[in-house]
Amino acid sequence: MSLVCSISNEVPEHPCISPKSGAIFERRLIEKYIVENECDPINGQPLTADELIDVKTPPIVRPKPPSATSIPATLKTMQDEWDALMLHAFTQRQQLQTARQELSHALYQHDAACRVIARLNKEVAAAREALATLKPQTGISAIQAAPQPAIAAEAAGVATQPVEQAGMSAEVIQKLQDKATVLTQERKKKGRTVPEELVSQEKIRGFLTLASHPGLHSASVPGILALDINHSDQSKILTGGNDKNATVFNKDTEQIVAILKGHTKKVTKVIFHPEEDTVITASPDASIRVWHVPTSQTQLLLRCHDEPVTGLSLHPTGDYVLSTSSDKHWAFSDIRSGRLLTKVADTADYGLTTAQFHPDGLIFGTGTEDSQVKIWDLKEQSNVANFAGHTGPITAISFSENGYYLATAADDACVKLWDLRKLKNFKTIQLDDGYEVKDLCFDQSGTYLSIAGTDIRVYLCKQWQELKVFNDHTALATGVRFGKHAQYIASTSMDRTLKLYGIE
């Protein structure tokens, strides 16, 4: 067994043992190390040259050096360089080991800090949610005019049930008629011209995903169920979620403006008032809430139905709201006074699934659980037309801005287009087998139609040509809306994300 120097890893000429570590060294190397460091190189304990113990070994027969290196000075220089190199390499190995230990310690500290930060963020979010829940209810407006029938008021968190109908007075009917006349005249002035600012179909084809926002609603109850955009401030987007909350989000600043808490069940329908900082929401808890966004407080609580509210649409006047329910009734309410103006039962023995006003506001459409689309005259409160052809419950309806077309969808993987002048189906967009449609939306010019469901699709109206498909949601898409002049498209999904599409 040969002896090996612990510093140079070579067989030593004059081996010695350190009593401190028991390691073997070349005497000249260890003596140099002791002169510089005064300690054992293995364990760092103090060591002197006198303490070294020589090891008796047979003499080593070295090969005769070449004659070219026989000059003693050259040999001495090379030996000194080699010794210095060995000492430096040994020191480097020690420093490398120390650096590895320090790096490992730093990584453990970083991991622990990340865990603490995540826990603190979770506690802050929980505290904020608890604070929002505990906001005083004194901001909730209670209508005090007692003689008026069916006024929604909220006291101690319980709203009165509007059991009486105020009726469609001549004043209300005249207001509806005047608004319809103005809107019809404006539409005639526009004619068939398309706004210059409208995004072209070529640009629609080039739309990309600009942003994805997953943090608007609780992750514990995932899913965004409803969507709307503020027409007067295109940066504000309203969503309703499975977590029983509605959220107002600013897409430009990427900040949550308000979280609206109050419903006892999921929020399935949301409307952003086009001219005011007001939001209207509906839920399967059979209630409709009118919110004041700056204070995040309920201004009005309407209980017009006995069962879940399934449809919600704001009248063009901005003063009335239409609602449908699985209780087989549609209701027309005044959001200023809280009065239930009228409530009409569908003659069929099936619940209603959706509702939307015609752009003029004098007629509206409803969908039923037995696949019927019905058109109603608001002033007469009567059913004036029925569209049959779908199979399965109606899931979405949307009127084109020009007032001529109605798009409808059901659980039959197709979208049907109806001509309201001829009262017939003139186009059916057949989708893939199993395709689910959850929402339909025309842009404000009536040029494009968007479908939300299994994916997001955009069609060019009149030609009904598919322009673009967005399929980056990881779950069923539940809502879609166009920004002003189709500058961007917003969509929501059960994957808890709000996605924005447009041109980079």
Write up this protein.
The protein has 504 residues and is an alpha+beta fold. The chain has 4 helices and 33 strands. The strands form 9 sheets. It has a 4-stranded antiparallel β-sheet with strand order 6-33-32-31, with no helix packed on it. The protein has a 4-stranded antiparallel β-sheet with strand order 7-8-9-10, with no helix packed on it. Strands 11-12-13-14 form a 4-stranded antiparallel β-sheet, with no helix packed on it. β24 and β25 form a beta hairpin. It starts with 14 loop residues before the first strand and ends with a strand. About 5% of the residues have low confidence.
Briefly characterize the structure.
With 504 residues, the protein is an alpha+beta fold. It is 20% helix and 35% strand.
